[in-house]
Design brief:
By secondary structure, the chain is an alpha+beta fold. The protein has three domains: about 120 residues, Cathepsin B, Chain A (Alpha-Beta Complex); about 200 residues, Up-down Bundle (ABC transporter transmembrane region fold), CATH 1.20.1560.10; about 230 residues, P-loop containing nucleotide triphosphate hydrolases (Rossmann fold, 3-Layer(aba) Sandwich). Helix content is about 60%, strand content about 15%. It has a six-stranded antiparallel β-sheet. A six-stranded mixed β-sheet has the order 12-15-16-9-17-18, with helices on both faces. The longest helix has about 55 residues. It is extended and about 120 Å long. Bound molecules: adenosine-5'-diphosphate and magnesium ion. Adenosine-5'-diphosphate binds next to helix 16.
Length: about 725
């Protein structure tokens, strides 16, 4: 940590996640921890000599054999000592001089080099074709081997026809048995070599594809998660996932067509000189016809792609009907909508079918046009060649029977790479558009800088808004308009107001979800924008009306993957939130599996689980945004009964439209169209705030008339 501070970064021990079973932190986990926090770190093995010669002034972390660490802060080459500092001693203490013998008793040679990350880290570079190219070229070593083996394979493919040529011309005409044996041996050798090399090349290509695939996946997901929430709110989920799925198209292209066409071109390069050597006339013919084939394919690509696009669109619409129907099957059944859905489905199926037929037809035309040309390359050449043999004396034409057959064997290989090249031109356009689409998602500004840098003050939990004004991007009216208020640490703030008055927006600003507001928002006097975003969100627990539970056990859901939290913490949090009572009655307790959408839990149970999840990290500030609004009165009462215990030692912000649950709050904030209408205690508000009184009366009319519960008498102004 001290090494990090030297570079102006603070580490959070809560980010640190040791591997299971690791008692002493291993260098690898330490490095991962530092990299996550925006530092460059590398574990190295050093010798005493290296230590003395290190050029940098920055501290080096020596990992000692007993699991602790020391900082190397200086060296004196003349006296052959290094200066070490124990990070646990106060910063003012002078470092200790240690010589080789003493150091080697404690230290096995593992050290961490730490420095500040320079420039943009890889995951912050924009997603573009250039980025992709760099990533592929990053696999230089494998790429080089693939290319070398492909070249060799291409040569090997040319050899057998050459041998056939010799076999026919020499063996058959001269009846030479010894040549036949020699050729057979060479053939066998080639086949063996080809098999092994082919295996090696496929293996290399697989390794390379997998690496590219993994890197692409990791990068895309990391970047997606780094995007701020308002991006996801602006772009519909369907749009985001569709665009992201284009990544896989890019991957298929990179590791499939691009590579294979590239390798095919090698064959062509090796092949053509050989063909020209046998017969220039025939070679020109083959080349010309193959080019025509490639041009035909190229000409057909745009219409095929257009129809193909229509087809895919129709398929997507068809899929949407299916998903929607299965998703809403309860409503479909309850309202007897089966026939309506079927009708809709029929139409979509018809559309998709029609588009598919059309695409097939166009492809068929292309194939039909190309077939005679292809046949010409493999059979026509024989005829023309035979004609050449017959009409010109063989010394002039230079074509023997064997050469003709060898030519036939090879000629068909010319068209393939050319067609591949034609398709590639089209595919590159395709991939370019895919890259643009993915870029539309990934190249938005991320929150990464804010989650890496920033302060990590110890929170008490005092909140202050000072003239905070905020409007959502694209909206003209302000969601918050000059909001000022102060909440002392450890107190409870209730927030009420009509729907759309800005209550949730207030809590979102507090969590740093939206950061481009005007005015000042401070926690314990520290400006919110100065605080490390991850740290802030960890210190501010939130429970919303609708909480997403992940597939996994109850325990998984409470801990939610946060490091260093144990079952004990989870049980404690569950007890506080009132979830313990029902968890213990579940068949497998904390190990009970929660299904997707948590159908096996009731709304109240889900909500209490969400509160436990928010509480488990012991946040200084807890926000409940309509957390109990959707609950039945009994569950709501249960949660509220625990509220006082939960509130102990933290600042609470409770948004609720049921005023009865806010009566005990230290302050109640009344919001109206983004403004603070009033703020005060319940009794004061009932007296002086018209909006509050109105709401209160509305909700408590029955109580008022029946006198079940004594409530402060509203004074009508
Ligand atoms: N993600 C969003 N994007 C654009 N406008 C929003 C968004 N969320 C809320 N708003 C708008 O901001 C205003 C305040 O909303 P909100 O804070 O959710 O109100 P409340 O929680 O009090 O019902 C509303 O007019 C709403 O339409
Ligand atoms: Mg709301």
């Amino acid at each position: 940590m001290a090494a990090a501070r030297y570079h102006g970064t603070r580490l959070d021990s809560r980010d640190f996640r040791p591997l299971p079973g690791e008692e002493v932190p291993s260098p690898a986990t330490l490095v991962a921890w530092m990299r996550d926090s925006g530092l460059w770190a590398k574990a190295v093995r050093l010798r005493w000599r290296n230590l003395l010669r290190l050029q940098s002034d920055a501290p080096v972390v020596l990992l000692l054999s007993d699991g602790s660490a020391a900082l190397l802060v200086g060296r004196d080459v003349a006296r052959e000592v290094v200066y070490l500092k124990d990070p646990r001693t106060p910063p003012g203490d002078p470092p200790v001089a240690v010589d080789e013998l003493r150091l080697l008793q404690l230290w096995q040679g593992t050290a961490l080099l730490v420095r500040r990350m320079r420039g943009a880290s890889p995951e912050e570079e924009p997603f573009s074709l250039a980025w992709l190219a760099r990533m592929v070229l990053g696999e230089r070593r494998i790429l080089r081997e693939v290319v070398a083996s492909s070249l060799t394979l291409s040569v090997l493919q040319v050899l057998p026809p050459f041998l056939v040529m010799i076999a026919i011309d020499r063996v058959l005409t001269h009846q030479s048995m010894s040549t036949l044996i020699l050729i057979s041996l060479i053939m066998a050798l080639i086949v063996g070599y080809e098999t092994v090399l082919g295996y090696a090349r496929r293996e290399l290509v697989e390794i390379m594809s997998t690496r590219i695939d993994v890197r692409l996946n990791l990068h895309v997901f990391a970047r997606l998660l780094a995007l701020p929430i308002d991006f996801f709110e602006r772009m519909p989920t369907g749009g985001t996932t569709h665009r992201i799925s284009q990544v896989f198209k890019i991957r298929d292209f990179l590791t499939g067509k691009l590579l294979s066409t590239f390798l095919d071109m090698f064959t062509l390069v090796v092949l053509l000189p050989f063909l020209f050597w046998i017969s220039a006339t025939l070679a020109w013919m083959v080349l010309a016809v193959s080019t025509v084939i490639a041009l035909v394919v190229l000409a057909f690509l745009p219409p095929i792609r257009r129809v193909w696009g229509t087809m895919i669109e129709a398929e997507i619409k068809k899929g949407a009907v299916l998903v929607e129907t299965v998703h809403g099957i309860r409503t479909v059944k309850a309202l007897a909508l089966e026939n309506a859905r079927k009708l809709e489905w029929d139409e979509r199926v018809a559309d998709a079918g029609q588009a598919r037929l059309q695409a097939g037809r166009i492809a068929n035309w292309a194939q039909t046009l190309v077939t005679p040309l292809e046949r010409f390359v493999d059979r026509g050449v024989l005829l023309v060649g035979a004609y050449l043999v017959l009409t010109t004396p063989s010394e002039l034409s230079g074509i023997s029977t064997g050469a003709l057959i060898a030519f036939m064997m090879l000629g068909t290989r010319v068209a393939g790479p050319l067609i591949g090249l034609a398709k590639l031109i089209q595919d590159i356009e395709d991939v370019r558009s895919s890259v643009t689409q993915v870029g539309e998602v990934l190249n938005n500004p991320t929150e990464t800088a804010a989650t890496r840098g920033g302060l990590r003050p110890v929170f008490e939990g005092a909140i202050s808004f000072n003239e905070v004004t905020f409007s959502y991007p694209g909206s003209k009216t302000a969601a918050l308009d000059k909001v000022s208020l102060d909440v002392a640490a450890g107190t409870m703030l209730g927030v009420v107001g009509r729907s759309g008055s800005g209550k949730s927006t207030l809590t979102r600003l507090l969590q740093g979800m939206n950061r481009d507001y005007a005015g000042f928002l401070k926690i314990d006097g520290t400006d919110l924008r100065e605080i490390n975003l991850t740290y802030l969100r960890r210190s501010v627990g939130t429970v919303m009306q609708d909480n997403f539970l992940f597939r996994g056990t109850v325990l998984d859901n409470i801990v939610a993957g946060r490091p260093n939290l144990t079952l004990e913490d989870a049980v404690h949090a569950a007890r506080l939130s009132g979830a313990e009572e029902f968890i213990e009655r579940l068949p497998r307790g904390y190990e009970t599996w929660i299904e997707e959408s948590a159908a096996n839990l009731s709304g109240g149970q889900r909500q209490r689980l969400a509160i436990a999840r928010a509480l488990v990290a012991d946040p200084r500030i807890l926000i409940l945004d309509e957390a109990t609004s959707a609950l039945d009165p009994e569950s709501e009462a249960l949660v509220h009964a625990n509220l006082m215990r939960i509130a102990h030692g933290r600042t609470m912000v409770i948004v609720s439209h049921r005023l009865a649950s806010l009566v005990d709050c230290d302050q109640i904030l009344v919001m109206d169209r983004g403004r603070v209408a009033d703020i005060g205690r319940h009794a004061e508000l009932v007296e002086r705030c018209a909006i509050y009184r109105h709401l209160w009366m509305q909700q408590n009319r029955h109580v008022e008339t029946h006198g079940v519960r004594p409530v402060p008498k509203p004074v009508i102004a």
